[in-house]
Amino acid sequence: MKTNRRNFIKTSAIAAASLAIPSTTIKGIEKLNQTKPFGKMKLSWIPYDLQLKHVFTISGFSRKTTPVVLTKIEYDGLVGYGEASLPPYLGETQASVIEFLKKIDLSPFSDPSHLEEILYYVDHIAENNTAAKASVDIALHDLMGKMIGAPWHKIWGLDKYAVPDTTFTIGIDTDEAVREKTREVLGDFNILKIKVGGEHDKRMIEAIRSVTDLPMAVDVNQGWTDKHEALDMIHWLKEKNIVMVEQPMPKYDFDNIAWLTERSPLPIFADESLQRLRDVEKMKGVFSGINIKLMKCTGMREAWKMRNLAEALGMKVMIGCMTETSCAISAASQLSAGLDFADLDGALLIANDCFTGAKLEKGKIIASDLPGIGVEPTQKLSFGT
Ligand code: MG
Q: Ligand 1 centroid vs 152 CA: distance in angstroms?
């Protein structure tokens, strides 16, 4: 046994030595192992406006642009990219993100791989600002992955192909527009997501069903107020091959949501009801699962912890997104393997994506093989401070 193991170790060492390790990886590992400060991290940013391909309506809001702030952390020739996406209903703006980023002083930190320490500091600069914090977290993860020379799905030990199909969202619209949008995307996706919560829900579902039998998720965005009506609706939805329901009732209405979840034939997911790691435990017994979004939970580090906690509590997990470039979507794609649902269509909804990274393949958003979060900018972006 001992000999076999020794032989195995010897063979593995030879195999590793014969692998073509890129020089950037070696350089990165040297930087990871250094004992003395090698240089300083430099954080910079640029506001950017995402143009949506279609006007987007969820219960209460319509819009055709989403502001974001892109971030960059440079360290000894390596560059990490990040993003804060700022849909108006969440309260952060490009100005508030930039104001937050200006407060960050990375000079006391000599080692970018000390993510826990750096992100603890960033989190305690101010309350909230979760998207601004995520933009730093994502850039640091990108940088550290590049130092190691591996994408995060590999660092986390995940199979990048073992991800759920991404849902593609069809916004609230006229029957004809809904049918047309559905026809446009048939063949590219294996599951759709419909925003409901209005008086025309059944009509919209029927309109889509007249075009396709694909499974669908529904996102109510807190739109239902009566639990009995909600339960009736869920039974009707199940008959229509709807496979999950997101945030059916107001976010703090835990008692009624728990009542609904207990009786519902479909899994019920929390979105607006939770933000961060500290909220996960409260969701147990109220919802069947949670929707983790990097912009709500301050980024990849906390998202990974939330995922692990929810799984340990026996809850289902989905990963969601805002309207985002391929930068933040690629970051989210790194941790989507093995989850129950993925809603990572954010970059597919915009006309001016300025990154390449995770791509749509047979209905799934698959991370690239590049290190870090696996992205490259597709245009010159003038980052500043
Ligand atoms: Mg939602």
A: 25
Residue 1 lies in a domain: no
pLDDT at 197: 85
**CA 347/CA 356 separation, integer angstroms:** 10
Q: How far is the CA of 272 from the centre of ligand 1 (A)?
A: 7
What is the total count of domains within the chain? 2
Residue 87 and residue 201 in one domain: no
CATH number for 77: 3.30.390.10
Phi first, then psi: what are they for 22, rounded to 5°? -60, 150
The H-or-E segment that residue 292 falls in is strand 289-293
What single DSSP character describes residue 165?
Answer: P
Among 226, 292, 223, 281, which residue's Cα sits nearest to residue 259? 226
384 belongs to a structural domain: no
Q: What is the pLDDT of residue 16?
A: 45
Mean pLDDT by 10 residues, the chain (385 residues): 45 47 62 64 98 73 88 97 93 97 96 96 97 98 97 98 96 88 93 89 94 96 95 98 98 98 98 98 98 98 98 98 97 98 96 98 98 97 95
Measured distance CA(197)–CA(57) in Å, rounded: 11
Q: What is the distance between the alpha carbons of residues 128 and 101, in angstroms, rounded to a whole number?
A: 13
Domain that holds residue 114: 26-153
Find the 110 Cα to ligand 1 centroid distance in Å. Answer: 39
